[in-house]
Design goal:
- The structure is a single chain.
- The chain is of the alpha/beta class.
- The chain folds into two domains: 210 residues, Tetrapyrrole methylase, N-terminal domain (Cobalt-precorrin-4 Transmethylase, domain 1, 3-Layer(aba) Sandwich); 127 residues, Tetrapyrrole methylase, C-terminal domain (Methyltransferase, Cobalt-precorrin-4 Transmethylase, Domain 2), CATH 3.30.950.10.
- 24% of the residues lie in helices and 17% in strands.
- The protein contains ten helices and 14 strands.
- The strands form three sheets. Strands 1-4-3-5-2-6 form a six-stranded mixed β-sheet, with helices on both faces. A five-stranded mixed β-sheet has the order 8-9-12-10-11, with helices on both faces.
- Helix 5 crosses helix 6 and helix 8 packs parallel to helix 9.
- The protein is elongated, with a radius of gyration of 22 Å.
Length: 359
């Protein structure tokens, strides 16, 4: 995936989210979030396990797991994310560090890079192979090589909802004594969950040192997409997300104005969704206020995936591409500067060597 954004957060306002879990042998139809917890052991009798998620097949009211099951009797569990009956669960933090009596495991935030297995770093692969449990957005889990998913004791994934409950699930599994990796595309520090993990650890009364918290970097979308476009980022750059799920649109507009009037190459994340047509249109309007219509713009959809598409166009043509399939949540847009040019179907941003050297 080209974006390490919390794209799963963008459309989650309608989600019930309190992530419930089920074993491979269990009926998970009661989940409000579609969360699955898949164990390499298919037995449903996991109530004594150190894992974060409880089984939906029984009464786990005494479980100190990361998320409760879909059973109606599980509401009293000491769980990080309760069942999906309460719309406010996504904003709630449940268990605290005092609710766990095990020696904490290790928590690692792992960046998968652009999407294809060969785009992952060796450090990322090794971290995932060493983890007992892997937690992540379903789309990201599906990007993992079979050797990694088959080696894990448990895989816990949720669809497009619940980054808070999913991150808390990873933390609770860690506090319960497991070595856990929480995964995301791109880099964990770029519009991703590394910061959220630290915030939730703090809210639980835990510390990063307690779980030996580590971040394993990956190639961010800006860099992986720029590589497909040529060399557009070799001078000063700025990244801006158009998602107003967490940042109000007036702030985003202010940042666009500030960046566009200076000579920054601008990388735009989360450019378009069915709920954010106006955001994209406004961004195009702001950019054209400060930059010429002929400014080169690179568009990369699904970098590193089978449906990857690459296009180089001009700023004046960008808005009309909003309804085009190339622009969606998996797209990254690179807006050039006054000195960016296109040569041999590549975007080129001069570094400044031409002012000092003859070549």
């Amino acid at each position: 995936m080209s974006t390490e954004t919390d794209s799963d957060a963008d459309d989650e306002s309608t989600s019930k989210c309190g992530a419930s879990t089920s074993d491979t042998a269990s009926d998970s139809s009661g989940s409000k979030c579609g969360a699955s917890s898949t164990s390499t052991e298919t037995s449903s009798a996991d109530s004594g396990s150190k894992c974060g998620g409880s089984s939906s097949s029984g009464d786990d009211s005494s479980s100190k797991c990361g998320s409760s099951g879909s059973s109606s009797d599980s509401s009293s569990g000491k769980c990080g994310a309760s069942s999906g009956s309460d719309d406010s669960n996504e904003k709630e933090v449940g268990a605290t560090v005092e609710d766990f009596d095990a020696d904490p495991g290790q928590l690692t935030a792992v960046g998968l890079g652009p999407g294809q297995p060969e785009g992952m770093t060796e450090r990322a692969k090794n971290a995932l192979l060493e983890a007992e449990h892997i937690v992540g957005y379903t789309t990201y889990i599906e990007l993992l090589p079979d050797e990694i998913t088959e080696d894990a004791d448990e895989i816990y994934d949720t669809p497009m909802c619940g980054e808070v409950s999913r991150t808390e699930e990873a933390i609770d599994r860690t506090l319960a004594g497991n070595d856990v990796a929480i995964v995301g595309s791109g880099d964990p520090n770029v519009y991703a969950l590394a910061g959220l993990a630290l915030e939730i650890l703090e809210s639980k009364g835990a510390t990063a040192s307690m779980v030996d918290f580590e971040v394993v970097p990956g190639v961010p979308a800006a860099q992986s997409c720029a590589a497909r476009l040529g060399a557009p980022l070799v001078n000063d750059t700025v990244s801006i997300s158009l998602s107003d799920h967490l940042v109000p649109m007036p702030e985003i507009e202010s940042r666009l104005h500030a960046a566009a009037k200076e000579s920054f190459t601008i990388t735009i994340y989360n450019p378009w969704s069915r709920k954010r047509r106006e955001n994209f249109e406004k961004a195009c309007e702001i950019l054209l206020t400060h930059r010429d219509e002929e400014t080169p713009v690179g568009i990369v959809h699904g970098a590193g995936r089978e449906d990857e598409q690459v296009m180089i166009t001009e700023l004046g043509e960008l808005e009309e591409l909003g309804e085009h399939e190339i622009i969606d949540m998996t797209t990254t847009i690179v807006v050039g500067t006054e000195d960016t040019y296109v040569w041999d179907d590549r975007m080129v941003r001069p570094r400044g060597y031409e002012t000092k050297y003859d070549y």
